[in-house]
Amino acid sequence: MQEGLIGKGSHGCVYKGILEEDGKIIAIKKQSLGLQKIEDNSKLENEVSILSSLPENSFIVNFLGTSHPDESSKSETFLIMEYMPNGTLYQMLHAQNYNILPNWPKRAQITIQVAKAIQFLHQAKPNSIVHRDIKSANILFDSNWNPKLGDLGLALTMKNDCENSRSHPSNSVTTRPAGTIGYLDPAYTKPSKLSTKNDVFSFGVLLFEIMSSRKAIDVSKSPVSIVDWATKLIKEGRALEICDKRMHVPWYMEATIKNMLSIATRCVSPNKISRPSIEEVVMEMENVIIEPIKYPLWNILRGLTLLTRKRKRCRKNCSILTTNNVTKTCAQHERKLLIREILADKVTE
């Protein structure tokens, strides 16, 4: 069984399997040995309960059912999940192989699709679902490289956001705070602090990670927290320095990237009330990110307008300080730089 191991979740291991009936490749989630020994099935049962209550969604790893090796006793339960062949977002962002690094439009697409996955959970009926473990290792890619959110082992249901109402199921009141250090909301210190805004905080951390390819916690760097590092740069007006140094940032993506970083900053606000809801995040992203990516020609034309203005200013200055010949060379240099930026980005798409 160890040979088929493809990943580890918050409370178990995931293996690659094949259905006998039709030969379909599947993922099989098995409870960890530690939990088996103490006969703690709560996390697995919780995940089955939550996944069973949800309709199929293109942004969530699809739940296919359960299986029992010993049908007579049903002593152990396996979760049967959609097989995701292209690894995790964590592996993609922190890969040593530069060829698999996502380009900037792809990074923007990933953030929007993850936000929509969280939105789907938060808007679930009759009870909202808080994932509690939003992180790059829980974002998986299907055969078409579409990202999907997985591992709902720590998820909890709640009737209302705890910030606005005291009406919520008992499991969200009695279950201790959980999550992954670095992504975990510092405000989530006790069960009563459970909120959809906890997921929003984790999404903000993930957004910084997607933009920078820096780990949420990295003890080899200072500050060790990606939130402290990124928010400091943004306050100092150096937002673009957050971007992954291994990837060229084309000028026509700069505004989009700054908008994404602005959203991330609000998501990780220490004040939970100041954080946007995930619905607001999705709406803003669709307005300031999807349209520019969907219609890149508009971005290019806008950039050409700005570049023309720069050239006019440059010519004016050059005409005072230098000869006309130098002015012409300066304009030609800007044109070459512009074409190089566009071609360099297109190669990575």
Number of helices: 11
Distance from first to last alpha carbon: 38 Å
Helical proportion, percent range: 40-55%
Mean pLDDT: 81
The backbone outline, from C-alpha atoms, is: globular
Determine Rg (CA atoms, Å).
24 Å
**Strand sequence of the main sheet, in spatial order?**
1-2-3-5-4
How is the main sheet built?
5 strands, antiparallel
What structural class do helix, strand and pairing data support? alpha+beta
Number of strands: 9
Strand content: 5-15%
How do the SSEs run, as a string of H and E? EEEHHEEHHEEEEHHHHHHH
Question: pLDDT below 50 for ≥5 consecutive residues: which ranges?
Answer: 164-170, 318-329, 331-349
Keywords: ATP-binding, Kinase, Nucleotide-binding, Serine/threonine-protein kinase, Transferase
InterPro entries: Kinase-like_dom_sf, Prot_kinase_dom, Protein_kinase_ATP_BS, Ser/Thr_kinase_AS
Organism: Datura stramonium
Binding site for ATP: 30
Structure description:
The protein has 349 residues and is of the alpha+beta class. The chain has helices at 33-37, 42-53, 89-93, 104-122, 170-174, 196-212, 226-235, 254-267, 278-294, 296-321, 324-348, and strands at residues 5-8, 12-18, 25-31, 63-67, 78-82, 128-130, 139-141, 147-149, 156-158. It has a five-stranded antiparallel beta sheet. Strands 6-9 form a two-stranded antiparallel ribbon. A hairpin with a 3-residue loop joins strand 1 and strand 2. Helix 10 runs antiparallel to helix 11 (324-348). The protein starts with a strand and ends with a helix. The model is unreliable at 164-170, 318-329 and 331-349 (pLDDT under 50).
